[in-house]
Amino acid sequence: MNGGYQFDFSAVLARYPLFFEAALLTLEILAIATVASLVIGLFAGIGLTSERWYVRGPVRAYVDLFRLTPLLVQIVTIFFLLPIVGITVNALVSGIIALSLNYAAFYAEIFKAGITSIDRGQWEASRAMGMKDSTALRRVILPQAIRRMLPPVGNMLVSLTKDTSLVSVIGVAELMSVSQTLGASTFRNLESLLVVTVFYLAINIPLSALVSYLHKKQVVNA
Amino acid sequence: MPEVTVPLGRKSGLPAGEHYEIELRDLHKSYGDNEVLKGIDLDIALGEVVVILGPSGSGKSTMLRCINMLETPTSGEIRVRGQVVDSRPANLMALRREVGMVFQQFNLFPNMTVLENVAAGPRYVRGMSRADSEARAQQLLTRVGIVGKDDVRPTRLSGGQQQRVAIARALALEPRVVLFDEPTSALDPELRGEVLDTMKSLASQGTTMAVVTHEMSFARHVASRVIFIDGGVIVEEGDPAQVLERPKSARLRQFLNKLEWEND
Protein backbone atom coordinates (compact mmCIF):
# COMPACT_ATOMS: atom_id res chain seq x y z
CA MET A 1 0.00 0.00 0.00
CA ASN A 2 1.32 3.43 -0.82
CA GLY A 3 -1.82 5.41 -0.07
CA GLY A 4 -2.42 5.83 -3.77
CA TYR A 5 0.62 8.12 -4.16
CA GLN A 6 2.27 7.86 -7.56
CA PHE A 7 5.95 8.81 -7.54
CA ASP A 8 6.91 10.92 -10.51
CA PHE A 9 10.40 12.36 -10.62
CA SER A 10 10.24 13.63 -14.19
CA ALA A 11 9.22 17.23 -13.46
CA VAL A 12 11.84 17.53 -10.70
CA LEU A 13 14.63 15.84 -12.62
CA ALA A 14 13.94 17.98 -15.68
CA ARG A 15 15.28 20.90 -13.63
CA TYR A 16 18.40 19.02 -12.51
CA PRO A 17 20.82 21.93 -13.24
CA LEU A 18 19.17 23.83 -10.37
CA PHE A 19 20.10 21.04 -7.97
CA PHE A 20 23.71 21.09 -9.10
CA GLU A 21 23.88 24.85 -8.69
CA ALA A 22 22.38 24.54 -5.23
CA ALA A 23 24.77 21.71 -4.37
CA LEU A 24 27.70 23.91 -5.38
CA LEU A 25 26.40 26.65 -3.12
CA THR A 26 26.02 24.15 -0.26
CA LEU A 27 29.63 23.05 -0.80
CA GLU A 28 30.73 26.68 -0.86
CA ILE A 29 28.99 27.37 2.45
CA LEU A 30 30.49 24.18 3.86
CA ALA A 31 34.02 25.10 2.77
CA ILE A 32 33.99 28.74 3.88
CA ALA A 33 32.25 28.05 7.19
CA THR A 34 34.65 25.19 7.92
CA VAL A 35 37.77 27.28 7.36
CA ALA A 36 36.34 30.27 9.25
CA SER A 37 35.10 28.21 12.18
CA LEU A 38 38.38 26.28 12.47
CA VAL A 39 40.38 29.52 12.57
CA ILE A 40 38.06 31.18 15.11
CA GLY A 41 37.82 27.90 17.03
CA LEU A 42 41.62 27.60 17.23
CA PHE A 43 42.02 31.03 18.82
CA ALA A 44 38.95 30.61 21.03
CA GLY A 45 40.22 27.17 22.10
CA ILE A 46 43.60 28.63 23.05
CA GLY A 47 41.69 31.39 24.88
CA LEU A 48 39.79 28.76 26.88
CA THR A 49 43.09 27.29 28.12
CA SER A 50 44.43 30.70 29.20
CA GLU A 51 45.40 31.11 32.83
CA ARG A 52 44.21 34.75 32.72
CA TRP A 53 40.56 35.06 33.71
CA TYR A 54 40.07 38.21 31.62
CA VAL A 55 41.01 36.23 28.52
CA ARG A 56 39.23 33.01 29.46
CA GLY A 57 36.02 34.67 30.75
CA PRO A 58 34.84 36.47 27.60
CA VAL A 59 35.83 33.51 25.41
CA ARG A 60 33.89 31.16 27.67
CA ALA A 61 30.85 33.48 27.46
CA TYR A 62 30.99 33.47 23.64
CA VAL A 63 31.44 29.71 23.46
CA ASP A 64 28.56 28.99 25.80
CA LEU A 65 26.25 31.50 24.12
CA PHE A 66 26.65 29.73 20.78
CA ARG A 67 26.91 26.20 22.10
CA LEU A 68 23.84 26.33 24.33
CA THR A 69 21.33 28.09 22.07
CA PRO A 70 19.72 26.65 18.91
CA LEU A 71 21.62 27.17 15.67
CA LEU A 72 18.36 27.99 13.87
CA VAL A 73 17.69 30.82 16.33
CA GLN A 74 21.25 32.10 15.82
CA ILE A 75 20.90 32.08 12.03
CA VAL A 76 17.71 34.13 12.07
CA THR A 77 18.85 36.45 14.88
CA ILE A 78 22.16 37.24 13.19
CA PHE A 79 20.33 37.85 9.90
CA PHE A 80 18.17 40.54 11.52
CA LEU A 81 20.83 41.83 13.92
CA LEU A 82 23.64 42.53 11.46
CA PRO A 83 21.89 45.38 9.56
CA ILE A 84 20.92 47.00 12.87
CA VAL A 85 24.56 47.14 13.99
CA GLY A 86 25.46 48.62 10.62
CA ILE A 87 26.71 45.52 8.82
CA THR A 88 24.92 45.09 5.52
CA VAL A 89 25.58 41.72 3.99
CA ASN A 90 23.44 39.40 1.93
CA ALA A 91 21.67 36.36 3.31
CA LEU A 92 24.44 34.02 2.13
CA VAL A 93 27.16 35.87 4.03
CA SER A 94 24.93 36.28 7.07
CA GLY A 95 24.23 32.54 7.03
CA ILE A 96 27.92 31.70 6.71
CA ILE A 97 28.72 34.02 9.63
CA ALA A 98 26.12 32.32 11.83
CA LEU A 99 27.28 28.81 10.92
CA SER A 100 30.93 29.79 11.44
CA LEU A 101 30.35 31.37 14.85
CA ASN A 102 28.29 28.38 15.97
CA TYR A 103 30.76 25.74 14.78
CA ALA A 104 33.72 27.74 16.06
CA ALA A 105 32.24 27.48 19.56
CA PHE A 106 32.28 23.69 19.29
CA TYR A 107 35.72 23.66 17.67
CA ALA A 108 36.95 25.81 20.58
CA GLU A 109 35.99 23.02 22.97
CA ILE A 110 37.64 20.43 20.73
CA PHE A 111 40.85 22.49 20.52
CA LYS A 112 40.80 23.04 24.27
CA ALA A 113 40.37 19.31 24.91
CA GLY A 114 43.16 18.54 22.44
CA ILE A 115 45.56 21.02 23.99
CA THR A 116 44.90 19.98 27.58
CA SER A 117 45.20 16.28 26.68
CA ILE A 118 48.90 16.73 25.87
CA ASP A 119 51.21 15.61 28.66
CA ARG A 120 52.56 18.39 30.93
CA GLY A 121 56.04 17.10 30.26
CA GLN A 122 55.82 18.38 26.69
CA TRP A 123 55.26 21.92 27.97
CA GLU A 124 58.01 21.50 30.54
CA ALA A 125 60.54 20.23 28.02
CA SER A 126 59.69 23.15 25.70
CA ARG A 127 59.88 25.75 28.44
CA ALA A 128 63.04 24.23 29.90
CA MET A 129 64.85 24.90 26.61
CA GLY A 130 63.71 28.52 26.67
CA MET A 131 60.85 28.32 24.17
CA LYS A 132 58.16 30.97 24.42
CA ASP A 133 54.73 29.49 25.18
CA SER A 134 53.51 30.58 21.75
CA THR A 135 56.41 28.73 20.09
CA ALA A 136 55.80 25.65 22.23
CA LEU A 137 52.13 25.73 21.29
CA ARG A 138 52.89 26.01 17.59
CA ARG A 139 55.82 23.61 17.32
CA VAL A 140 55.14 21.02 20.01
CA ILE A 141 51.65 21.08 21.51
CA LEU A 142 49.32 21.83 18.58
CA PRO A 143 50.92 19.36 16.11
CA GLN A 144 50.23 16.61 18.64
CA ALA A 145 46.81 17.95 19.66
CA ILE A 146 45.59 18.30 16.07
CA ARG A 147 46.32 14.63 15.34
CA ARG A 148 44.05 13.68 18.22
CA MET A 149 41.40 16.15 17.07
CA LEU A 150 41.02 14.82 13.53
CA PRO A 151 38.18 12.34 14.22
CA PRO A 152 35.99 14.84 16.16
CA VAL A 153 36.67 17.52 13.55
CA GLY A 154 35.62 15.07 10.83
CA ASN A 155 32.38 14.44 12.67
CA MET A 156 31.79 18.19 12.82
CA LEU A 157 32.23 18.38 9.03
CA VAL A 158 29.54 15.75 8.51
CA SER A 159 27.31 17.61 10.90
CA LEU A 160 27.94 20.99 9.21
CA THR A 161 26.91 19.58 5.82
CA LYS A 162 23.52 18.83 7.31
CA ASP A 163 23.25 22.11 9.19
CA THR A 164 23.85 24.16 6.03
CA SER A 165 20.23 23.29 5.21
CA LEU A 166 19.12 25.59 8.05
CA VAL A 167 20.19 28.74 6.19
CA SER A 168 17.31 28.07 3.80
CA VAL A 169 15.11 29.88 6.33
CA ILE A 170 16.79 33.20 5.49
CA GLY A 171 16.44 32.53 1.77
CA VAL A 172 19.86 31.28 0.74
CA ALA A 173 19.41 29.23 -2.44
CA GLU A 174 21.24 26.15 -1.20
CA LEU A 175 19.99 22.55 -1.61
CA MET A 176 17.17 22.62 0.92
CA SER A 177 15.88 25.93 -0.32
CA VAL A 178 15.89 24.85 -3.95
CA SER A 179 14.12 21.63 -3.09
CA GLN A 180 11.33 23.62 -1.46
CA THR A 181 11.04 26.03 -4.35
CA LEU A 182 11.01 23.27 -6.92
CA GLY A 183 8.67 21.16 -4.88
CA ALA A 184 6.18 24.00 -4.68
CA SER A 185 6.35 24.89 -8.34
CA THR A 186 6.07 21.30 -9.60
CA PHE A 187 3.76 20.04 -6.83
CA ARG A 188 6.31 17.26 -6.34
CA ASN A 189 7.58 18.14 -2.84
CA LEU A 190 8.42 14.61 -1.80
CA GLU A 191 10.34 13.77 -4.98
CA SER A 192 12.21 17.02 -4.65
CA LEU A 193 13.16 16.22 -1.04
CA LEU A 194 14.30 12.74 -2.00
CA VAL A 195 16.56 14.17 -4.69
CA VAL A 196 18.28 16.55 -2.26
CA THR A 197 18.62 13.67 0.18
CA VAL A 198 20.73 11.94 -2.44
CA PHE A 199 22.84 15.08 -2.81
CA TYR A 200 23.46 15.33 0.95
CA LEU A 201 24.44 11.65 0.99
CA ALA A 202 26.78 12.21 -1.95
CA ILE A 203 28.60 14.85 0.10
CA ASN A 204 28.55 13.12 3.48
CA ILE A 205 29.26 9.48 2.66
CA PRO A 206 32.82 10.29 1.50
CA LEU A 207 33.32 12.62 4.48
CA SER A 208 32.12 9.97 6.87
CA ALA A 209 34.39 7.39 5.23
CA LEU A 210 37.29 9.80 5.78
CA VAL A 211 36.39 10.05 9.48
CA SER A 212 36.37 6.27 9.93
CA TYR A 213 39.68 6.07 8.11
CA LEU A 214 41.21 8.68 10.43
CA HIS A 215 39.77 6.88 13.43
CA LYS A 216 41.27 3.57 12.40
CA LYS A 217 44.61 5.16 11.59
CA GLN A 218 44.67 6.77 15.01
CA VAL A 219 43.83 3.54 16.82
CA VAL A 220 46.66 1.79 14.96
CA ASN A 221 49.15 4.55 15.77
CA ALA A 222 48.10 4.91 19.39
CA MET B 1 80.64 0.01 32.54
CA PRO B 2 84.20 0.52 33.75
CA GLU B 3 84.72 1.46 37.36
CA VAL B 4 86.22 4.89 37.84
CA THR B 5 87.66 5.60 41.25
CA VAL B 6 88.66 9.23 40.82
CA PRO B 7 85.74 11.68 40.78
CA LEU B 8 85.47 13.11 37.29
CA GLY B 9 83.88 16.43 38.18
CA ARG B 10 86.12 19.29 39.22
CA LYS B 11 86.26 20.25 42.88
CA SER B 12 84.45 23.33 44.07
CA GLY B 13 86.28 26.53 44.93
CA LEU B 14 86.16 29.80 43.15
CA PRO B 15 88.87 32.12 41.83
CA ALA B 16 88.38 35.73 42.94
CA GLY B 17 86.03 37.82 40.79
CA GLU B 18 84.36 34.81 39.23
CA HIS B 19 80.72 33.91 39.65
CA TYR B 20 79.30 30.57 40.53
CA GLU B 21 77.31 29.02 37.69
CA ILE B 22 74.35 28.75 40.01
CA GLU B 23 73.64 30.19 43.43
CA LEU B 24 70.53 29.43 45.43
CA ARG B 25 69.92 31.66 48.46
CA ASP B 26 67.39 30.80 51.16
CA LEU B 27 65.07 29.15 48.65
CA HIS B 28 61.56 28.38 49.90
CA LYS B 29 58.74 26.68 48.07
CA SER B 30 55.26 25.95 49.38
CA TYR B 31 52.21 24.36 47.86
CA GLY B 32 49.40 25.82 49.92
CA ASP B 33 50.21 24.95 53.53
CA ASN B 34 52.77 22.35 52.53
CA GLU B 35 56.27 23.81 52.66
CA VAL B 36 58.42 21.60 50.43
CA LEU B 37 61.62 23.64 50.49
CA LYS B 38 62.53 25.29 53.77
CA GLY B 39 65.50 27.45 52.93
CA ILE B 40 68.00 25.94 50.53
CA ASP B 41 71.45 27.49 50.02
CA LEU B 42 73.53 25.95 47.27
CA ASP B 43 76.38 27.04 45.01
CA ILE B 44 77.42 25.14 41.92
CA ALA B 45 80.78 26.05 40.41
CA LEU B 46 81.96 25.59 36.84
CA GLY B 47 82.68 21.94 36.04
CA GLU B 48 81.16 20.58 39.22
CA VAL B 49 79.02 17.46 39.22
CA VAL B 50 76.63 17.80 42.14
CA VAL B 51 74.59 14.73 42.98
CA ILE B 52 71.48 15.36 45.03
CA LEU B 53 70.19 12.48 47.13
CA GLY B 54 67.14 12.25 49.32
CA PRO B 55 64.07 10.19 50.08
CA SER B 56 61.00 10.68 47.91
CA GLY B 57 59.08 13.77 48.96
CA SER B 58 62.23 15.35 50.39
CA GLY B 59 62.06 18.26 47.94
CA LYS B 60 65.08 17.30 45.83
CA SER B 61 63.24 17.35 42.49
CA THR B 62 61.41 20.54 43.46
CA MET B 63 64.76 22.18 44.22
CA LEU B 64 66.15 21.11 40.85
CA ARG B 65 63.03 22.38 39.07
CA CYS B 66 63.37 25.72 40.85
CA ILE B 67 66.82 26.20 39.32
CA ASN B 68 65.29 26.68 35.85
CA MET B 69 62.05 28.08 37.25
CA LEU B 70 59.82 25.21 36.15
CA GLU B 71 58.65 25.72 39.72
CA THR B 72 58.46 29.31 40.92
CA PRO B 73 60.02 29.60 44.37
CA THR B 74 57.84 31.16 47.07
CA SER B 75 60.83 33.18 48.28
CA GLY B 76 64.59 33.27 48.00
CA GLU B 77 66.99 34.12 45.23
CA ILE B 78 68.40 32.28 42.25
CA ARG B 79 71.48 33.60 40.44
CA VAL B 80 72.90 32.21 37.24
CA ARG B 81 76.47 33.44 36.74
CA GLY B 82 75.77 36.25 39.16
CA GLN B 83 72.60 37.35 37.34
CA VAL B 84 69.49 37.35 39.51
CA VAL B 85 66.66 35.37 37.96
CA ASP B 86 63.07 36.57 38.21
CA SER B 87 59.91 35.45 36.50
CA ARG B 88 59.76 38.18 33.83
CA PRO B 89 59.45 36.24 30.56
CA ALA B 90 62.53 37.71 28.85
CA ASN B 91 64.67 37.03 31.91
CA LEU B 92 63.22 33.55 32.19
CA MET B 93 63.97 32.68 28.55
CA ALA B 94 67.55 33.91 28.98
CA LEU B 95 67.97 31.76 32.09
CA ARG B 96 66.57 28.66 30.46
CA ARG B 97 68.90 28.93 27.48
CA GLU B 98 71.77 28.69 29.97
CA VAL B 99 70.35 25.70 31.82
CA GLY B 100 69.54 22.43 30.05
CA MET B 101 67.30 19.80 31.59
CA VAL B 102 66.90 16.04 31.29
CA PHE B 103 63.66 14.60 32.64
CA GLN B 104 62.78 11.27 34.22
CA GLN B 105 60.19 10.61 31.50
CA PHE B 106 62.48 11.91 28.68
CA ASN B 107 59.70 14.21 27.38
CA LEU B 108 60.91 13.96 23.80
CA PHE B 109 58.59 15.51 21.22
CA PRO B 110 56.71 12.65 19.50
CA ASN B 111 55.70 14.89 16.58
CA MET B 112 59.34 15.31 15.57
CA THR B 113 62.05 12.93 14.42
CA VAL B 114 65.08 12.22 16.59
CA LEU B 115 67.12 14.77 14.64
CA GLU B 116 64.37 17.41 14.82
CA ASN B 117 64.08 16.92 18.57
CA VAL B 118 67.73 17.75 19.08
CA ALA B 119 67.61 20.58 16.52
CA ALA B 120 64.45 22.10 18.05
CA GLY B 121 66.24 24.30 20.59
CA PRO B 122 68.74 25.89 18.20
CA ARG B 123 66.05 26.27 15.56
CA TYR B 124 63.03 27.52 17.47
CA VAL B 125 64.74 29.21 20.41
CA ARG B 126 67.86 30.62 18.83
CA GLY B 127 66.45 31.01 15.32
CA MET B 128 69.20 29.01 13.64
CA SER B 129 68.58 27.78 10.09
CA ARG B 130 67.27 24.28 9.58
CA ALA B 131 70.52 23.12 7.97
CA ASP B 132 72.75 24.56 10.71
CA SER B 133 70.59 23.33 13.56
CA GLU B 134 70.44 19.83 12.10
CA ALA B 135 74.19 19.75 11.51
CA ARG B 136 74.70 20.58 15.16
CA ALA B 137 72.07 18.02 16.19
CA GLN B 138 73.90 15.37 14.20
CA GLN B 139 77.17 16.07 16.02
CA LEU B 140 75.42 15.85 19.38
CA LEU B 141 73.68 12.60 18.50
CA THR B 142 77.03 11.13 17.54
CA ARG B 143 78.41 12.32 20.86
CA VAL B 144 75.73 10.41 22.80
CA GLY B 145 76.12 7.38 20.53
CA ILE B 146 72.80 7.56 18.67
CA VAL B 147 73.79 7.02 15.04
CA GLY B 148 71.62 6.24 12.01
CA LYS B 149 68.38 7.10 13.81
CA ASP B 150 68.02 10.67 12.54
CA ASP B 151 64.69 10.21 10.78
CA VAL B 152 63.16 7.80 13.29
CA ARG B 153 60.40 8.88 15.68
CA PRO B 154 61.71 8.84 19.25
CA THR B 155 58.96 6.44 20.40
CA ARG B 156 60.57 3.75 18.20
CA LEU B 157 63.73 3.83 20.33
CA SER B 158 64.47 1.98 23.57
CA GLY B 159 64.15 3.95 26.81
CA GLY B 160 67.91 4.20 27.13
CA GLN B 161 68.25 5.52 23.60
CA GLN B 162 65.44 8.00 24.18
CA GLN B 163 67.14 9.34 27.26
CA ARG B 164 70.42 9.75 25.37
CA VAL B 165 68.55 11.69 22.67
CA ALA B 166 67.07 13.82 25.48
CA ILE B 167 70.60 14.47 26.77
CA ALA B 168 71.70 15.52 23.28
CA ARG B 169 68.66 17.81 23.12
CA ALA B 170 69.56 19.37 26.47
CA LEU B 171 73.09 20.04 25.20
CA ALA B 172 71.97 21.57 21.91
CA LEU B 173 71.71 25.11 23.26
CA GLU B 174 75.20 24.79 24.78
CA PRO B 175 73.94 25.33 28.32
CA ARG B 176 76.31 26.29 31.11
CA VAL B 177 74.66 23.77 33.42
CA VAL B 178 72.66 20.60 32.77
CA LEU B 179 70.04 19.47 35.29
CA PHE B 180 69.16 15.77 35.48
CA ASP B 181 65.89 14.88 37.24
CA GLU B 182 66.12 11.15 38.05
CA PRO B 183 67.34 10.38 34.52
CA THR B 184 67.47 6.60 34.98
CA SER B 185 64.45 6.04 37.23
CA ALA B 186 62.06 5.25 34.38
CA LEU B 187 64.48 2.78 32.79
CA ASP B 188 64.85 -0.96 33.09
CA PRO B 189 68.04 -1.84 34.96
CA GLU B 190 69.79 -3.14 31.84
CA LEU B 191 69.24 0.18 30.06
CA ARG B 192 70.57 2.40 32.85
CA GLY B 193 74.23 1.74 32.12
CA GLU B 194 74.22 3.39 28.70
CA VAL B 195 72.63 6.55 30.10
CA LEU B 196 75.00 6.65 33.06
CA ASP B 197 77.98 6.12 30.73
CA THR B 198 76.80 9.06 28.62
CA MET B 199 76.48 11.22 31.72
CA LYS B 200 79.87 10.11 32.93
CA SER B 201 81.47 11.08 29.67
CA LEU B 202 79.81 14.52 29.87
CA ALA B 203 81.23 14.92 33.36
CA SER B 204 84.70 13.99 32.17
CA GLN B 205 84.43 16.69 29.49
CA GLY B 206 83.89 19.27 32.21
CA THR B 207 80.11 19.76 31.88
CA THR B 208 78.62 21.36 34.96
CA MET B 209 75.85 19.06 36.16
CA ALA B 210 73.27 18.84 38.94
CA VAL B 211 71.88 15.33 39.18
CA VAL B 212 68.96 14.09 41.25
CA THR B 213 69.37 10.31 41.33
CA HIS B 214 69.34 7.12 43.36
CA GLU B 215 72.33 5.74 41.44
CA MET B 216 74.84 5.32 44.25
CA SER B 217 77.65 4.19 42.00
CA PHE B 218 77.30 7.37 39.95
CA ALA B 219 77.30 9.45 43.14
CA ARG B 220 80.36 7.62 44.46
CA HIS B 221 82.50 7.69 41.33
CA VAL B 222 81.40 10.69 39.28
CA ALA B 223 80.13 13.31 41.71
CA SER B 224 82.45 16.04 42.88
CA ARG B 225 80.00 16.80 45.66
CA VAL B 226 77.05 14.97 47.16
CA ILE B 227 74.10 16.71 48.77
CA PHE B 228 71.58 14.98 50.97
CA ILE B 229 68.19 16.67 51.23
CA ASP B 230 65.49 15.63 53.67
CA GLY B 231 62.40 17.49 54.81
CA GLY B 232 63.11 20.44 52.53
CA VAL B 233 66.56 21.28 53.90
CA ILE B 234 70.12 20.26 53.02
CA VAL B 235 71.02 17.88 55.82
CA GLU B 236 74.54 17.01 54.73
CA GLU B 237 76.88 17.86 51.90
CA GLY B 238 80.45 17.29 50.89
CA ASP B 239 82.88 14.98 49.22
CA PRO B 240 81.18 11.73 48.05
CA ALA B 241 83.58 9.55 50.03
CA GLN B 242 82.92 11.54 53.16
CA VAL B 243 79.15 11.84 52.79
CA LEU B 244 78.51 8.31 51.58
CA GLU B 245 81.05 6.38 53.67
CA ARG B 246 80.99 8.42 56.88
CA PRO B 247 77.52 9.96 57.13
CA LYS B 248 77.18 12.21 60.16
CA SER B 249 73.42 12.37 60.54
CA ALA B 250 71.14 9.53 61.55
CA ARG B 251 68.77 10.44 58.74
CA LEU B 252 71.41 9.98 56.06
CA ARG B 253 72.63 6.70 57.61
CA GLN B 254 69.07 5.45 57.57
CA PHE B 255 68.59 6.55 53.95
CA LEU B 256 71.82 4.87 52.80
CA ASN B 257 70.99 1.65 54.62
CA LYS B 258 67.61 1.54 53.01
CA LEU B 259 69.06 2.14 49.53
CA GLU B 260 71.61 -0.60 50.05
CA TRP B 261 68.86 -2.92 51.21
CA GLU B 262 66.78 -2.13 48.11
CA ASN B 263 69.70 -2.50 45.73
CA ASP B 264 70.60 -5.98 47.03
TrEMBL record, chain A:
The keyword Membrane applies. PROSITE patterns: ABC_TM1. One of its GO terms (molecular function) is transmembrane transporter activity. InterPro entries: AA_ABC_transptr_permease_3TM, ArtM/GltK/GlnP/TcyL/YhdX-like, MetI-like, MetI-like_sf. The chain crosses the membrane at residues 22-44, 193-214. One of its GO terms (biological process) is amino acid transport. It is found in: Cell membrane. Signal peptide: none annotated. It comes from the Bacteria. Keywords: Amino-acid transport, Cell membrane, Membrane, Transmembrane, Transmembrane helix, Transport. It holds the Pfam family BPD_transp_1. Residues 23-211 form the ABC transmembrane type-1 domain. One of its GO terms (cellular component) is ATP-binding cassette (ABC) transporter complex. CDD domains: TM_PBP2 (cd06261). It is a multi-pass membrane protein. SUPFAM superfamilies: MetI-like. Belongs to the binding-protein-dependent transport system permease family. HisMQ subfamily. This is Nickel transporter. It comes from Amnibacterium flavum.
TrEMBL record, chain B:
GO terms for molecular function: ATP binding; ATP hydrolysis activity; ATPase-coupled polar amino acid-transporter activity. It is a peripheral membrane protein. Its main location: membrane. Keywords: ATP-binding, Cell membrane, Membrane, Nucleotide-binding, Transport. It is found in: Cell membrane. Transmembrane segments: none annotated. Residues 22-256 form the ABC transporter domain. It catalyses: a polar amino acid(out) + ATP + H2O = a polar amino acid(in) + ADP + phosphate + H(+). Coiled coil: none annotated. CDD domains: ABC_HisP_GlnQ (cd03262). GO terms for cellular component: plasma membrane. Its EC number is 7.4.2.1. InterPro entries: AAA+_ATPase, ABC_ATPase_HisP-typ, ABC_transporter-like_ATP-bd, ABC_transporter-like_CS, MetN_ABC_transporter-like, P-loop_NTPase. This is ABC-type polar-amino-acid transporter. It comes from Amnibacterium flavum.
